[in-house]
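Customer escalation, tier 2.

The customer says the design service returned an amino acid string that "doesn't look like it belongs to this structure." They asked us to rerun it and document both sides in this ticket. The original structure tokens are below, unchanged.
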């Protein structure tokens, strides 16, 4: 997923949408996650605790990702719902700029000779990347046109959002 444009809010979100993809038992979504595909972004809590698969699968909300590099690991694991058909060159430019900035910072760290300074730079670089969700200049979508091909869609089924903090506090009796 780190090779996709993904931007989410750091604010607490009350509700999630049940993941509509085959790994979650939903077999009606056969849209492939290929370049320029739009999909529902979601955290992968199984990287923290293996038993949180259902919580991960159903953690999508208002955040979307734009697939930049197709990968089989995305198919059946992320709910694709559309594709960018106009303005693909804008996505290509965003991808180039972001990678260029990240590579430039990474090269600065790699070229540092002083071990103590290099360690400081590595820590600062890692913190910056994490705080920016991997992006130096997070892209913002200003408008979207959706063509449903005449199909009327009902609202998705909302479920209470999973809170990792609440789960850990309850499981390990932490105040």
């Amino acid at each position: 997923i780190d090779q996709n444009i993904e931007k989410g809010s750091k604010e607490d979100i009350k509700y999630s949408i049940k993941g509509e993809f085959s790994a979650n038992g939903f077999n009606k979504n056969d849209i492939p996650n290929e370049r320029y595909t739009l999909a529902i972004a979601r955290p992968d809590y199984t990287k923290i605790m293996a038993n949180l698969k259902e919580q991960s699968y159903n953690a999508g909300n208002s955040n979307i990702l734009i697939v930049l590099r197709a990968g089989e690991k995305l198919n059946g694991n992320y709910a694709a719902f559309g594709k960018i058909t106009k303005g693909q060159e804008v996505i290509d430019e965003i991808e180039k700029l972001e990678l260029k900035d990240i590579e430039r910072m990474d090269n600065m760290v790699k070229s540092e000779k002083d071990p103590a300074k290099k360690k400081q730079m590595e820590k600062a670089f890692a913190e910056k990347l994490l705080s920016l969700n991997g992006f130096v200049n997070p892209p913002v979508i200003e408008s979207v046109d959706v063509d449903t091909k005449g199909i009327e869609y009902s609202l998705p089924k909302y479920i209470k959002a999973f809170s990792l903090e609440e789960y850990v506090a309850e499981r390990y009796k932490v105040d």
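Tier 2 assessment: The sequence is consistent with the input. Residues 88-111 form the longest helix (24 residues). The radius of gyration is 19 Å. Sent an explanation to the customer and offered a walkthrough call.
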